Amino acid sequence: MLHLPIGRWRDWIPADCPGCGRRQGGQGLCAACLASLRPDPARPCCGRCAHPLDEVGGCPDCGPEPPAYDRVVAAFDYAGLGRDLIRDYKIRRRLSLARPLADLLVRAVLAGEAGNPRPDWVVPVPARRESLRRRGFSPPAEVARLLARRLGLRCHLDGVRRMREGERQAVLDRALRLRAQVGVFTAFGAAGRPHPAPPAHRALSGSAADSARPLSGRRIAVVDDVLTTGATLQAVASALKEAGAVRVEGWVLARAVSPGSGRDGGRGRGRVLQ
């Protein structure tokens, strides 16, 4: 027992569930919280953006033109407990939630893996400088590196960079979000946009580093915390495909859904753990 790897100790040391606060044997979310976050398998969702379909089988969130990304995988709805966990992670800066949240996204990726090719790279959406200064960490980057290690994939933390800061998405409506993100991002290898390779320690592949492979012909998974309008994912996917990527998927922790489409948005845990 004393010689167990550090990761295995998490499976049996008692701890409070970060979702409900109940004491349990092991780290991470308890069985009840995991069950409450599990998507309804009977609920039909859009094959492109993962939003629940409407009564006539149409997607209320997709526009007439197909987006630059090819598929979205979401771990849970941005509602109830899922919303609480995201807020704890991002707003209350509970970095310890990165691992259980990454585990939830791993579960969703593996559940939808059949018939879909595995990506060559995992790339996080780059955080704004102001957000990095305020939080001290990048929520997508922390989840991306943990997820990549679990799945044995290459994680390129600097695969996408910001050309400019852009406006905070939370204060914009849908139309403004879509316009505001145009030209914000650039990807490694984009024509006319120098993007030098980062130091070796910034590119992870589970246990090995690889920071110099071109994007041409590559399949990329973009990791983010919440997908709302898809404006950020659209802009990142466009930059990646401009640099030569052939397929871009969005792997997100939470998917915001229209009222009435998802689970009860008000059914959270009723409190936020400090």
UniProtKB/TrEMBL annotation:
Domain annotation Double zinc ribbon: ranges: 14-62
Superkingdom assignment: Bacteria
Residue span, Phosphoribosyltransferase domain: 211-254
Gene3D superfamilies per UniProt: 3.40.50.2020
InterPro entries, per the entry: ComF/GntX_DNA_util-trans (IPR051910), DZR_2 (IPR044005), PRTase-like (IPR029057), PRTase_dom (IPR000836)
Pfam families associated with the record: DZR_2, Pribosyltran
Family listed: Belongs to the ComF/GntX family.
Protein name per its UniProtKB record: ComF family protein
Organism: Castellaniella daejeonensis
Origin organism lineage: Bacteria, Pseudomonadati, Pseudomonadota, Betaproteobacteria, Burkholderiales
